[in-house]
Structures are given as structure tokens and as C-alpha cells.
């Protein structure tokens, strides 16, 4: 564990020394593209497209809240409450019907 931290901090120090040397020698224009990409990724992470899209939370207000605001609750269609009939049929299988009670259920 100590060996890993020594390697990590050595790499960090060498990166800082390299960055300072690059800035002193006048190669700061080479830093423009990486810094611009990092800034763009940060801005997209912080102010992403998801935040601009939803200005209000998608929560259905309760009937009590709707009564307070004076708006009527949305009416449901009577067809939506009926149960639909599907043309499927359940076929009873043989799995649960053991004639031997001593045999374990799962084996």
C-alpha cells in the first residue's frame, strides 16, 4: 500500500514539474486544446442536456393539491378501468402434483 502511494505521488510531482517546464518554455499554446476539452466535459457534466430539458419535476400532483389550486383532476376514461380479455389460457402442468409425499419437492 505504501509502495502504491509513493508511485502515485512521484507521478503527480513529475507531472507538475513537466507542466511548469512546458509553461516556462513557451509551449502554453499546446495546452489550449486539452484544457478546452476538459472545460467542455466539465460544463456538460455540470449543466448537461438533462437539466435544460426538465424545468419542473415530473410528479403527478395529488387530488388534494389539485383541489387547492382550483384545477380539476384529469378524468379517466371508463374503458381504462375495465379488465381486458386476452385469448390465452392457463394449462395445468404436472410439476406440483406428486403422488409420493416422501419425495422432496426440489432435487
List the helices and strands and how they pair.
Layout: H1 2-24, H2 32-46, H3 49-53, H4 63-69, H5 78-81
Offer a quick outline of the entry.
The chain is mainly α. It contains 5 helices and no strands.
Order of secondary-structure elements = HHHHH
Strand content bin: under 5%
The helix content, as a percent range, equals: 40-55%
Assembly classification: single chain
The chain-level mean pLDDT equals: 76
State the major sheet. none
Task: Please state the structural category.
Answer: mainly alpha
So how many helices? 5
According to DSSP, the number of beta strands is 0
Q: How far from one another are the termini? A: 47 Å
Shape estimate? flat
Q: Gyration radius, to the nearest Å?
A: 33 Å
Notes on the protein architecture:
This protein is mainly α. It has a domain at 2-69. Helices cover 50% and strands 0% of the residues. The chain contains five helices and no strands. The protein has helices at 2-24, 32-46, 49-53, 63-69, 78-81. The longest helix has 23 residues, at 2-24. The radius of gyration is 33 Å and the shape is flat. This is DUF5668 domain-containing protein.
Amino acid at each position: 500500500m505504501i509502495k502504491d502511494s509513493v508511485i502515485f505521488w512521484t507521478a503527480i510531482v513529475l507531472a507538475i514539474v513537466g507542466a511548469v517546464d512546458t509553461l516556462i518554455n513557451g509551449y502554453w499554446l499546446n495546452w489550449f486544446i486539452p484544457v478546452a476539452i476538459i472545460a467542455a466535459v466539465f460544463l456538460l457534466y455540470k449543466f448537461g442536456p438533462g437539466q435544460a430539458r426538465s424545468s419542473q419535476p415530473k410528479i403527478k400532483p395529488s387530488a388534494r393539491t389539485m383541489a387547492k389550486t382550483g384545477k380539476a383532476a384529469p378524468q379517466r376514461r371508463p374503458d381504462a378501468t375495465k379488465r381486458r380479455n386476452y385469448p390465452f389460457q392457463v394449462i395445468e402442468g404436472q410439476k406440483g402434483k406428486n403422488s409420493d409425499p416422501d419425495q422432496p419437492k426440489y432435487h
